[in-house]
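Meet today's protein:

…
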Amino acid sequence: MRQIFIILGTKAELIKLSPIMSALQQKNISYRFIFTGQHQNTVEDLRKNFGIKKPNVTLYTGKDITRIFQMAGWIIKVIWKVLVHKKEIFGSHIQKNDIVIVHGDTVSTLLGAIMGKVAGIKIVHVEAGGRSHNLLSPFPEEICRTVTDKLSYICFAPNDRDEENLKGYSATVINTKYNTVSDCLDIALKNIHNSTVKIPKEKYALCMIHRFENIVHKEKFRKIIEQIVFASSHIKILFVLHAPTKEHLIKYNLMHLLEKNQNIEMRPRYDYFDFIALMHSSQCVISDGGSIQTEAWLMGKPCLIMRDVAEYKDGIGSSSLLSKHDPAVMKKFIQNIDLYKRPPFRPEHSPTEIILDTIIEK
């Protein structure tokens, strides 16, 4: 019987792999959940959202890994732990058909792939093939996904473009046509009536900025905040703050621009179901998150993507607009929100089911 190992370490990975993990549990198919510990905050809430079992192995239990130097030390500790305790982590009976499942383009993704290779296990990469074709932008995501694809035995590409990017790779490439986030969203929308999150009475835009490429450069981050302040003159802004975003707002003396603005309300991070409830009730979304872009597209929500380049193309040309950090694009979007509204969209099939049909031995 094939052994399935699932290695993840961030909130995004847990959300997008949760339909697979939940389905395995429902089918009574055993899997070993290995948690790298890259993100700690709200992970427990997300796990409970989707009914995912507790990790079998946790490799790190400290603070969230949010800084480059902090990340380097964490990687060394995790790899050392794997080398010293390989049998405790993966067991002593590795078979040639066993698989390690990783997701996306985080450092935990690459770390999981390396761990699997060290243990002599085949790598399965979910949401493979995304490319900006610039190794330094976004950093380190482009490097993480490119190397992980090269290490993989099976790559599940979420669309035709990403499948094309994987031509020439040794992995078996399977096109699921859509992202597993569509399955996550279905689960969340079915549970939206259980959310207790406070929804503003007035119309609002949901905002979240968190990518390192945006927040670590002072002038770039300042211009983004100034554009959000401009947007607040047209619509209330609900700004959900990640810890690194808050840290850099304070570091660069930008927090006051948000705090003094009566039409900007700052909120803490939420679990997935509450966040989707907020998005569902919003007029539009302003974000640099790829998953959020896809969720907005599926819900028909206008979305302004606060990036120079977007590997995700979901919604671009219809409900989504790539800002390229141009104030004129922000002005065009925020003054014409209704032009970007679209009917909600649902894929004709489940990406999760395609993945399960492949990895579950008949």
Notes: The chain has two domains: 4-178+349-359, 189-340. The first strand starts at residue 4 and ends at 8. The first helix runs from residue 11 to 26. DSSP finds 16 helices and 13 strands in the chain.
